[in-house]
Design goal:
- The chain has 8 helices and 5 strands, in the order E-H-H-H-E-H-H-H-E-H-E-H-E.
- It has 204 residues and is of the alpha/beta class.
- The protein has a single domain, classed as Thiolase/Chalcone synthase (Peroxisomal Thiolase, Chain A, domain 1).
- It has a 5-stranded mixed sheet with strand order 1-5-4-2-3, with helices on both faces.
Length: 204
């Protein structure tokens, strides 16, 4: 049995992107060998204060989303029931990998409480909700290469059902030093693909 989807439209109030060079809404060259760039200056610029207990993924999620919200008229956002729909292909790996390594190191280790809390899949969306003062729907979607499309469909479903009035939908994935691991997973062996630099981003 197949379900026919009806065509519908959603107005876009604002959009923003953050690439590997960490310059909001601007294309800039980056060197894979120099990634990841330090995000602390960007956090200070966009959020006005440092994020001391957050990893890189959480910082890029918040900076990308807040950059988008700063481009929307305040009167449009004020008092609206807003939902956050964060999509990610790989998730919060900059927190998860050290956490897992620490847990399994020497037959069990003692990970930091911050790493444990931030390893939860919805941690970045929680940080964002707190920064935006959103108290409604907060969801993280991870469907590999279809993550953003899935989050967008979910947001539309919530809007159509009247659960929310506005949806903040975006995607984020971060660079990790284990680049060759990703190329191996994708079967990108030398000679079988055109080498392209890996990057990272947060688009909303």
């Amino acid at each position: 049995m197949t379900t026919k989807l009806e065509n519908s439209s959603m107005p876009v109030i604002a959009a923003s992107y953050l690439g590997p060079a960490l310059i909001p809404n601007a294309d800039a060259a980056w060197d894979e060998a120099k990634l990841p760039a330090n995000a602390d200056d960007l956090v200070q610029k966009i959020m006005g204060q440092p994020m001391r207990r957050a990893g890189r993924f959480i910082k890029l999620v918040c900076c990308g989303a807040l950059s988008c919200m700063q481009g929307a008229p305040k009167e449009v956002l004020q008092g609206k029931r807003t939902g956050i729909f964060l999509s990610t292909g790989l998730g919060n790996i900059d927190e998860i990998l050290p956490f897992i390594t620490q847990v399994f190191k020497h037959d069990g280790g003692f990970p930091s409480p911050n790493q444990f809390a931030n390893s939860v899949s919805n941690a970045a969306a929680f940080f964002l909700a707190k920064a935006c003062d959103v108290k409604g729907t907060v969801i993280t979607v991870s469907q590999e290469e279809l993550s953003f499309e899935s989050a967008l469909w979910l947001a539309q479903s919530y809007l159509d059902a009247g659960e929310i009035e506005l949806a903040l939908v975006g995607g984020c994935d971060v660079f990790t030093p284990a680049v060759e691991d990703y190329r191996e997973r994708l079967n990108l062996v030398p000679g079988r693909y055109r080498r392209a630099p890996l990057g990272e981003g947060s688009s909303w």
